[in-house]
Amino acid sequence: MKSLYIECKMGAAGDMLTAALLGLLNEGERSRFLDKVNSLGLSGVEVVHEETVKQGITGNKVNVLIDGEAEGEGYHNEARHTTLRKINDIETIINGLNLSDKVKADAVSVYNLIAEAESKVHGTTVTDIHFHEVGTMDAIADVVSVCILMDMLCPDKVVVSPINVGSGYVKCAHGTLPVPTPATALLLQNIPMYSDERSKGELCTPTGAAVIRYFADEFGSMPVMNVEGIGIGFGTKEFEALNAVRVFLGEPVIENNGQDAIIELKCNIDDMTAEDIGYAVDKLFKDGADDAFTTPIYMKKGRPASLLTVLCHDNMRDRMVRDLFKYTTTIGVRETICERYVLDRQQTIMHTKYGDVRIKEVEGYGVKRSKIEYDDIARLAEDNGVSPMEIRQNI
Q: How many of the other CB atoms lie within 10 Å of CB of 139?
């Protein structure tokens, strides 16, 4: 299982995220990425990578050239922004590129998040919103590049630090706006963010905010992990602090001495359909619940109802509570902090003639056992046209 941690102490922008993720690839993979992104069919666009040193630190810088001109050199050139695009125009451009269906869908989804935020800010519909800065070809290249890199790295979990949005004001097509801009603020709603008064200017762009919102599974401090790769992506602007996004890729480490604490959240529900409760449980799992389940109960006057229980760790408590109020009809959630005994867990990979499978191994209290991940068995059975039983027998 691979975890990706994105450190946004100096915000997030498309080019910085691209450069940081690019730092996780080896030289051959990096060359393949650049060849791919420069042969997509984006008119006049060239993505250029260079290793550079800032404040004594070696990292990566990515420039998107439009007809040979870098963003920083001609970003406010009037010709760059006279072509205003709607979301349908952006989707047409992306769907016409030489990309996999998954990467296309990811890129379109990122732009839909931006369109939803912009439409709320300007009081119009998603289909009528016009993109200014985020509709330029270099912005499209940034979004597509991040989506390609995330597909190449394929992390199982993405954790993002609280995001520094910067401070002061920024000039854009709509005039001089406060930082974070209204669209960025909406994109970061319910995501931990803060303003660093020492860094005057926009640190988190709408593009960066949308990419983070789309790919992040969790927000918080860096998880305990065995780091295998580190990428540093530099921004164009210079600040007192090093203007960079850092990314860490590695295997998560579960630290315990046989005991840890888990939070149990409960609520009684007697006015929701089974389908709606099932949807709520799915959302809880997607947003980071360790477990979620229902138990049939009877409430006053003999009414049949469901007891919804969610198990999570402390750093996910607030998100789970918000989800319970958002996706269920409950008006109150009970909390219990439980001490629990757990077995040490780790994951290994087994190579078979059908393909690789993950083996979950647990040990402790005189017990040792292992279990094959069923999702892998089902995938190999489907890919090879055999039964799950035959896969298990081979293993």
A: 24
Tokens of 50: 């260079």
Nearest to 87 by CA among 62, 108, 117: 108
Average pLDDT per block of 10 residues along the chain, 395 residues long: 94 96 96 94 89 95 85 41 74 93 95 89 72 70 96 94 92 80 92 87 93 93 91 93 96 66 94 95 94 94 93 91 95 91 82 86 86 89 90 83
Reading the block at residue 350, the tokens are 């087994």
Distance CA 120, CA 301 (A): 45
Burial per residue of 293-321, b for 16 or more beta-carbon CB atoms within 10 angstroms, e otherwise: ebeeeeeeeeeebbebbbbbeeebeebbb
C-alpha 79/C-alpha 115 separation (Å) is: 22
- Rounded Cα distance between 117 and 244, Å, is 26
183, 184, 189, 190 alpha-carbon torsion, rounded to 10°: 170
pTM to 2 decimals?
0.64
Q: Are 116 and 95 in contact (CB under 8 A)?
A: no
Give the SS3 label for residue 337: strand
Give every CB contact of residue 356 below 8 A, 6+ residues apart in sequence.
349, 350, 376
Q: How many residues does the chain have?
A: 395
Compute the distance between CA of residue 196 and CA of residue 214 in angstroms, rounded to an integer: 24
Distance from C-alpha of 187 to C-alpha of 181, rounded to nearest angstrom: 10
User: To 10 degrees, the CA torsion angle through 140, 25, 74, 141?
Assistant: -10
Give me 239's structure tokens.
Answer: 């600040």
DSSP labels for 219-250? Answer: ESSPPPEEEEEEEEEE-SS--SS--EEEEEEE
Distances (CA, A) of 317 to 118, 209, 289: 30, 23, 9
CB 213 within 8 A of CB 113: yes
For residue 155, say if its preceding peptide bond is cis, omega within 30 degrees of 0: no
Residue 47, strand partner residues: 64
Q: Quote the CA–CA distance of 144 and 150 in Å, as a whole number.
A: 10
Alpha helix locations (H) across the chain? 14-22, 27-37, 71-74, 78-81, 87-95, 101-122, 137-153, 182-187, 206-215, 274-286, 317-327, 374-384, 388-394
